[in-house]
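Entry 14. Two folds queued back to back today. First construct below, sequence then structure tokens.
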Amino acid sequence: MKYSIFSLAANALTGHKGWKPAWRDASPREAYDVVIVGGGGHGLATAYYLAKEHGITNVAVLEKGWIGSGNVGRNTTIIRSNYLLPGNIPFYELSMKLWEGLEQDLNYNAMVSQRGVLNLFHSDAQRDAFARRGNAMRLHGVDAELLDRDAVRKMLPFLNFDDARFPIQGGLLQPRGGTVRHDAVAWGYARGASDRGVDIVQNCEVTGFRIENGRAVAVETTRGTIRARKIALAVAGNSSRVAAMAGLRLPIESHVLQAFVSEGLKPLLPGVVTFGAGHFYISQSDKGGLVFGGDIDGYNSYAQRGNLPTVEDVCEGGMALMPMIGRVRLLRSWGGIMDMSMDGSPIIDRTPVDGLYLNAGWCYGGFKATPASGWCFAHLIAHDVPHPAGAAFRLDRFATGHLIDEKGQGAQPNLH
């Protein structure tokens, strides 16, 4: 069913009883050309682009829970392409361009809102670093504006300019950045893939792999064995655990990242704001809630919940940036499992096991990368050649020294 003003009007006349499910809740078949493990944003996007761009429709997406139960439904909805290094900028700019046409492509309202992303700086050194970042972005054709203190005050007069321990001196603005409704992204890609013949199999947990003569030929699941010519992993924070079933040890640590939503407020924040003197970021949803978060919790975990010291740290960052947030009541919080790579950048590559492909290591950047991740991963699976925009995300870069260390923190995943 195509969504339009006409289908809306027609269903309004029948009491909205004619709407069909957005996608087929399929049962697994014995074999597929491609099996994608992970029914989050990246797995669904990969399936969609495999079908749409490469004509590969004999595909199954296996999700151990329900669609939207993982990290794609547990993030702060921010999209941006304000990166510094040449390994990252082309990829995230491709993602931004795909975001800009996503709703028309999927015929689905993903609530893409390009309201701008502003990164504040609080020192001369930070200003120089952001100026360099902005110049690198513009050299790659990405929009960037370096704002001084007065320009930031005009845009966001309610921030703490006068009494802060780390006064705001300006910020780097990407006007095309913004937010997207995270659940709608999963639903839209699921609908688009299903309409093109992809089987989306929920409540189907992978329990192992069948490897014959060094090649992955099947996945063992709670719903039986499923054979495949190619098997692709897109399981975010569970990447190390799932890859270990195939005998692989990945350069990844799993950490919890907490996020928070306040009660609904009248329109307050015009865009996304990040605090440069601490790790705090905030935006406002279309329903009025303030959506914010900070650092990952400082220990390895597979639990989708965090600890109170990190909650306190996030609240301190919010109070330092905009003290009035202290009067707002918290509505809910949650945790997502981050697959933190050794250099803070992702992996899209073939693995040493033939027929097994890996999409992992997204750290904080997973949601904003969803369209480009699916696009590049689908290209890799279809052609066994990396897409140019994701060519730097090789698995062996940690052995060869070709790291993409955006933050300059070295090989310590918890610091990225």
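Second construct, same run, same settings:
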Amino acid sequence: MAKMNQNLYGAVGKIGNITVYQSNGETLAREIVRPKNPKTFLQTMQRILLKAAGVAYGKFKEICDHSFEGFGNGSECMNNFKKVNINYLRDRAAAIQDSGQSLDQFYQFTPINGTAWAPFAVIVSQGHLPTVSVTIDAEDGHVARVNSPSASYADFVNAWGIRRNDQITFVTVQKVDGKYEVELARIVLNPRNPDGSGAPMTTEIVNSEGGFPCSNWKNDLNFSTFEFDTDHFNFVLGRGGIVVAAGIIVSRKNKGAGRKDKSTDWFRSNCQLVLNEAGFGDDLCSLAKAIETSYVSTEIDIESEYYLNNAGGGGTGSTGESTPSGGSGGVTPGEPTYNTLATINGVSQSIAGGNVTATAPVTTVAISGNNLGEVVFTAKVDGAGDAINPTTHDANSAAFTGLNVQAGHSLVVYRGGTTWFTITAQAPDEGGDAN
């Protein structure tokens, strides 16, 4: 940061790679720094999950800017939406990795620079009201369903545990003309007869033309399907596409709410969308593939939401390449891919690229990935001397314990006699990870 001379007093803006701005009556300048993409597996994954949550919020904003009980409408609900969905996605990815599975089984993602969108199991509301469970028929018509003991209004609401005057918001994501569209329809449970006991639910909600005959309804979106079938109602909204995700939100006016705290005006139910993976066809993109493609981006603006320094807290693992080796397509057998991890002194990091660092002394190394294979793993300090054999090894993991690799030295790990990756031990003040 530097003070500017008299000729630039009051200036605001950019000159080359210098930003000029005002602070406390002074004209100051600082250099714009655009750091290279840290390119770690965890940082790249964090950016993709952040983008996934941000794109999802944009698609569901019409309801999700006010659908979290106890949070104010607008920015409070938005921030909570992103928080709970990023946490869900990160925990789901970790659980898949911990089970030894490939992240190819983790769907609904696109690279940072991608424009396509496909939904995940989005959390669209949270609260304490009864949750209405939705299922999707993945074979016959790809429609959403909700259970009910009969077609009557009274049995319908009693089965759900809801009340007269509750608002019911139906949510679907449908595939229409090759694109994924969010469709919403909201009704207020206010039947024309006093208790609703004799009213068929289909008559009270939707007529044969797809319109609402109810005296109290909201939104202009119609059901294209709402019909009772033996023990459940089928529903499809809007233009009647293939339902790939669905859920129901129950909302109830809080009559005892204070006038000042708008976050207490309404109670909500929990709703996380149910997925119909059969409805996506071949459109799904794995998280592993999204991360691999996103590595191509060589720079990330430090002011961008995608630049998250030390995101996930998981080591360096930088490849030093604009297009790192590994991943799918043309992979050399035995080469570590992005979801192949080494837990060094208890801290997990990707070993894609073949070189990682850790804080000395390195005492334990546990390798995990999807089907490592029954091959011989060994290690050597500085690549010399006697080989160290793993204490345990199976098709999905191998562990080395009792090590003592000091700062300035390395541990070279071999797979089948070929160098697989190298761990360089560093003193804490050299930038190594705080294991």
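Quick look at the second one. DSSP finds five helices and 25 strands in the chain. The CA atoms of residues 315 and 349 lie 6 Å apart.
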